[in-house]
Amino acid sequence: MNLTNLQIRRQRGDLIQMFKIFNKLEIVNLVNDLCLNTEKRKYDLRSHNRTIYREKMKYFQPRFNFLTNRVVTTWNKLPTDIVNAQSLNSFKAKLDVWIKD
After folding, report:
1. d(CA 57, CA 60)
2. First-last CA distance in the chain
3. What is d(CA 75, CA 1) in angstroms, rounded to the nearest whole number?
4. C-alpha dihedral (25, 31, 33, 34), degrees to nearest 10
5. Is 53 helix (H, G, I), strand (E, B) or coil?
6. CA–CA distance, 65 with 4 (Å, rounded to integer)
């Protein structure tokens, strides 16, 4: 059987949820908005236009497990063509290919 493990399934679900939030396919009331990278660098060859930052926290460790902080590293590693997919189904298909590599 060619099944994926629980960690990969959770990561895939989190990335799909972030795609829905970015494209306003689902309305989510976040306590703190996403920390987007809005600065324009001259040579931006390694990241896409929807780069997000992890929320800075000192004394509240459970906040690290929130969706917006949990998915930052993987989201920023995604290629531009996946992040800028035209539809949810194309995002899922491209994401599945990327995860298998």
Report:
1. 6
2. 18
3. 28
4. -80
5. strand
6. 22
pTM score: 0.78
Cβ(55)–Cβ(71) below 8 Å: no
Q: Is the dihedral of CA 42, 44, 49, 55 positive or negative?
A: negative
Q: What is the pLDDT of residue 87?
A: 95
pLDDT confidence tier of residue 92, bands split at 50, 70 and 90: very high
Rounded Cα distance, 16 and 22, in Å: 10
pLDDT at 95: 95
Report the sign of the C-alpha dihedral through residues 68, 71, 77, 79, in that order.
Answer: negative
Q: Write out the two tokens for 20.
A: 């829905």
C-alpha 7/C-alpha 34 separation (Å) is: 23
